[in-house]
């Protein structure tokens, strides 16, 4: 039986790389696995009911470029390189797959300009939402206003709007009339963060 990209290569490497004891890392791991699983279904490169040769289509796609951005956002580019290097060994006898993998490894190793970048330009609302979902669970999108609302807890939320060259963020704190002390505390925290 051939090696399955997701089950035999991706998942074991991600499990080794990410410290699953930390709640934040569990979310990152789950989101990366979900994204890759979605791409596996979209391109059909699973050995279980698909064709491993379709991995080439994924590797040369803009979807793979987006996956690189996700790994870079969390400083995990080295993990992606490890995944590809292991895949290269596993698929050495598959000429087209190994060529596509080698090409991506070279690109990732030589492209030091965005290596481990925590910030990248968001190209679409979908990318913005996917990035936010890695960290926050309660997100609403209003397509008519092109606005994303992120619940931050304790009566706080952010309204995020994506424009052509910028992202506008409005923080909102909902207070009751008798919460003046909380208002002062929140304002002090904002001032400390900005100065």
What is the number of beta strands? 4
Domain module count: 2
Tell me the span between the first and last alpha carbons. Answer: 59 Å
Shape: elongated
Helix content: 40-55%
**Rg:** 20 Å
Mean pLDDT: 80
As a percent range, the share of strand residues is 5-15%
Based on secondary structure, the structural category is: alpha+beta
Number of helices: 8
Helix-strand topology string: HHHHHHHEEEEH
Summarize the main sheet.
4 strands, antiparallel
Q: Oligomer, anyone?
A: single chain
Unreliably modeled segments: 112-121
Task: Enumerate the strands of the largest sheet in spatial order, edge to edge or round the barrel.
Answer: 1-2-3-4
Short overview:
It contains eight helices and four strands. The chain is an alpha+beta fold.
List the helices and strands and how they pair.
Blueprint lengths: L4 H13 L5 H21 L11 H5 L2 H12 L3 H14 L4 H16 L14 H9 L5 E4 L4 E7 L2 E7 L4 E7 L6 H15 L1
Antiparallel strand pairs: 1-2, 2-3, 3-4
Helix pairs in contact: 1-2, 1-5, 2-4, 5-6
Write up what this structure looks like.
This protein is an alpha+beta fold and 195 residues long. It has two domains: 5-114, no CATH class; 125-194, no CATH class. The chain has helices spanning 5-17, 23-43, 55-59, 62-73, 77-90, 95-110, 125-133, 180-194, and strands at residues 139-142, 147-153, 156-162, 167-173. It has a four-stranded antiparallel β-sheet with strand order 1-2-3-4, with helices on one face. A hairpin with a 4-residue loop joins β3 and β4. It is elongated, with a radius of gyration of 20 Å. The N and C termini lie far apart (59 Å). Residues 112-121 have low confidence and may be disordered.
């Amino acid at each position: 039986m051939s090696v399955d990209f997701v089950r035999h290569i991706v998942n074991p490497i991600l499990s080794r790389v990410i410290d699953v004891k930390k709640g934040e890392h569990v979310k990152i791991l789950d989101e990366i696995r979900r994204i890759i699983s979605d791409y596996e279904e979209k391109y059909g490169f699973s050995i279980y009911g698909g064709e491993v040769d379709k991995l080439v289509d994924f590797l040369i796609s803009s979807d793979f470029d987006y996956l690189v951005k996700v790994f870079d956002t969390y400083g995990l580019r080295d993990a992606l390189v490890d995944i590809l290097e292991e895949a290269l060994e596993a698929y050495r006898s598959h000429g087209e797959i190994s060529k596509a993998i080698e090409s991506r490894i070279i690109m990732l190793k030589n492209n030091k300009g965005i290596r481990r970048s925590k910030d990248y330009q968001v190209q679409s609302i979908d990318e913005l939402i996917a990035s936010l979902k890695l960290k926050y669970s309660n997100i609403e999108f209003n397509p008519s206003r092109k606005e994303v609302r992120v619940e931050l807890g304790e009566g706080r939320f952010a309204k995020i709007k994506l424009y052509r060259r910028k992202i506008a963020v409005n923080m909102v704190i909902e207070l009751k009339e008798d919460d003046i002390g909380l208002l002062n505390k929140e304002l002090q925290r904002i001032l400390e963060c900005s100065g």
